[in-house]
Fold:
Amino acid sequence: MSFKVEKGKSPMNAPTFSLVSAGKTVALFKEPPTEGPFLTMPSVFYGRGKGFHGVTRFSGRPLRSALEKYLPPTAERLRHGCFIVASDDGYRVVFSYSELFNRTDNGEFLLLDKQSEDGGRFTIYPSPDFFSDRAVKSVKEIHYWEF
Structure:
């Protein structure tokens, strides 16, 4: 698996994103998923090269709700699974399966429908993270792996 990196790409444009498991596309998301509750979460967000941003509100549905019907929780996935999320410019982050599906702190990873010309359509906001490093705009692919 490799990702083409285009640092500083503008505009970023990914109107859809795919879910890939074992090298095969198992889902293509063209519209925002309707599974799960619609949440608005106030958050302290630090980073993006600009330091502290104060309290920002992010609204969307839990990412796990969109992925659950394609990759339902199993003991093996909770122990060994991870997701590699790639944006249109090649930026990548990793989430463990357990981070998304085994939470007890109400810290959801939200899937936002931004419909932004420069930032693509879908954004992932990791509410449990204080730093913005694992927020991904213009989501293009989500790959599932087990280690």
Remarks:
- DSSP finds three helices and ten strands in the chain.
- Residues 51 and 112 are 22 Å apart (CA to CA).
